[in-house]
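tool_log.txt
---
The assistant was asked to compare two proteins side by side. It first ran the structure predictor on the initial sequence, then on the second. Raw inputs and outputs are pasted verbatim so the downstream comparison step can read them without reformatting.
(1)
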Amino acid sequence: MTVARLNLILVMIALACALSAVSANHRARKLYTELEAVQKRMRDLEVEWGQLQLEQSTLAAHVRVEKAAREKLGMKPPAPGRIISVDPVPGN
């Protein structure tokens, strides 16, 4: 094997290694960008979840439900003699 041929093989190996390093670096940057986008989406969803929980607690507040029942549905509490207490069945 001549020195020129050996040099050519070594240059080709070095070129392959360089292209492989560039490809790996590009892939890593692409994955990092994707990771940042997913993390931002996660933070946005966490903020939205907190807002929805706050909205749910506001909408389900006892005072608000009672007010809506009285005003919109015309409901009122039953007379004390009309209230029937039901005890739970044991074993269920």
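(2)
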Amino acid sequence: MHLTYLVVTAFAALMNAYAAALNFARAESVQAVANRLGIAHRWMLPFGVLLAAGAVGLLVGTAAREIGMAAAIGLIMYFMCAVTAHMRAHDTQVGGALFFLLVAIAALVTNVADRRPW
């Protein structure tokens, strides 16, 4: 189970770090989503910071499990808000947000399942 936890956590951290980088770079794809949802572009930097913090928290969580759990929970809340924003805007292109949400849930579940009484 430990290897599964490490792989899922590393994957989730890499995905969120990449998403943060896209926000920091103000990528056209991120701007297009913001436009569809009616979100001001000035929010790209704060959203990128949240994603980057989540990615770092997941990686730190491999050594301090509680931090990893907190990071995963934070990312789950972030992507629940993202899915809600898509739904409120009647945007049918919600697959990316749902996928990120499921990966964050998987990171939390594997973290909890791998708890060892060390």
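---
observation on (2): The chain has a mean pLDDT of 95. The two ends are 15 Å apart (CA to CA).
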